[in-house]
Write a structure and sequence with these properties.
Structural class: mainly beta
Number of helices: 2
Radius of gyration: 23 Å
Helix content: under 10%
Distance between the termini: 42 Å
Shape: globular
Length: 414
């Protein structure tokens, strides 16, 4: 009798347990920390990235077509500010002027990318690629790019394993809108080049390689080093990657383009499936998936040419609520929490209302390292540039760009 009672209790306990380990570890709630950090560039526009562990920000200040003595590459140590402490205006712990790298003032764009482990930063200045150690910013390696390399980079990114770096952008001719993709392995020369890819924004990681589309109604998948590529017919464009089903999603925000899920064991053997997302009924296109895979954002064509995003429950095939307008929401690395596209609100798919909202930026009193109180002064034009620049891999911080300055906002999970 006692044996059967014990078995019954065990079964009841198992039934009551969450279905996935992700659900077990997901925090009950989240909110913004008060220890918001203000980062100021030396001059010009701010461009930066967070280290995966949320410890450092590596950033540049740059102008569209020239280098000046007050343009710098800098590192800020976020460990100096408590997530639940007062707002701070933080000075960089290391800062190097661009003049350390080059002497002329032509065609410079401060694009940078941190390696997946956060130990290296890559930056392209004119026709040179520099790899520097983080946080010391000591030179690790320098590469002279080929004449076919992008004169105006629009993408700089590492492969998931950190072994390959890709550069894409427009040529020196203003009418040349083709894109060159150059694959470089740290410690080696350029190992491959793939040119005439007109749309750089579609270059995205896919499995251990890349995927992109062109204007010939085709898309291409390649290995990390671009030594093997396969082209497929396409209606619309590459919309996203579903990590749960391991499929590449193509289509458009318009009802007349079918939503296709491309699956297959290898890059050269993908086949389309029009049934996987048929339940959307043409109501938009899958865009990004939550870390647990339970929810995703769907992008649809809103008023006029402006897109909007809504949330869907994958398990129940159910529309939840709006997630953003004009700018795509971004998932945090913890649970299923996400940020509104402009980074001002924190949400969760199960909650129709925002969990937290940032205070008005111009009203935040930041305390400088000299003890003075400073406020952000936003030019009108900068309001159009407000947006999320980066999110740390652990979801504890995100970088909010404001033109010539940036904010690092902590996220606290409970």
């Amino acid at each position: 009798m006692y044996r059967w009672l014990l078995i019954t209790l065990i079964l009841l306990t198992l039934i009551a347990m969450p279905a996935t380990s992700a659900a077990q570890s997901a925090p009950a709630t989240a909110h913004f920390g008060t220890g918001i950090i203000l980062l100021e560039s030396k001059a010009g526009w701010f461009s930066g990235k967070l280290s995966p562990d949320g410890r450092y920000v590596v950033g540049t200040s740059w102008y569209a077509n020239s280098v000046r003595a007050d343009n710098h590459l800098s590192v800020w140590d976020l460990a100096q500010v408590a997530a639940d402490g007062p707002p701070r205006a933080l000075d960089p712990v290391v800062s190097r002027p661009f003049s350390d790298f080059m002497s002329d003032e032509s065609s410079v764009y401060g694009w940078l990318a941190l390696s997946p482990d956060g130990t290296l930063v890559a930056i392209v200045l004119k026709n040179k690629l520099y790899l520097l150690d983080v946080p010391a910013l000591t030179m690790h390696a320098t590469y002279t790019l080929s004449p076919e390399a992008p004169a105006r980079p629009g993408h700089l990114g590492w492969s998931a394993d950190g072994s390959v770096l890709s550069i894409a952008g427009y040529g020196s001719n203003e009418n040349d809108y083709d894109t060159h993709v150059i694959i470089i392995e740290p410690g080696l020369d350029v190992v491959n080049e793939f040119d005439t890819v007109p749309n750089i924004e579609t270059l995205r990681p896919f499995r251990d390689g890349w995927a992109f589309y062109d204007t010939n109604e085709t898309f291409t998948t390649c290995t990390a080093r671009l030594d093997a590529c396969t082209t497929y017919p396409l209606r619309g464009y590459i919309a996203g990657y579903d990590p749960i089903n391991d499929v590449l999603i193509t289509g458009s925000r318009h009802r007349y383009d079918p939503i296709l899920a491309w699956a297959g064991p290898d890059f050269d053997s993908l086949t389309p499936d029009a049934t996987l997302y048929a339940y959307l009924g043409g109501f938009g296109l899958p865009d990004s998936f939550s870390p647990t895979g339970r929810y995703y954002t769907v992008c649809w064509q809103g008023t006029g040419y402006y897109p909007g995003w809504v949330l869907w429950d994958i398990e129940q095939h159910r529309l939840l609520h709006s997630a953003g307008f004009i700018r795509a929401p971004m998932w945090l690395g913890m649970g299923d929490y996400f940020l509104h596209g402009k980074g001002m609100n924190l949400g969760h798919p199960t909650q129709a209302e925002w969990l937290d909202t940032l205070p008005e930026i111009v009203s935040i009193p930041f305390v400088s390292e000299t003890g003075e109180t400073v406020y952000v002064e936003l030019w009108q034009m900068y309001h159009e540039l407000v947006g999320i620049y980066d999110i740390s891999a652990d979801g504890t911080h995100y970088l909010l760009g404001l033109g010539n300055v940036a904010l690092v906002v902590p996220v606290i999970y409970e």
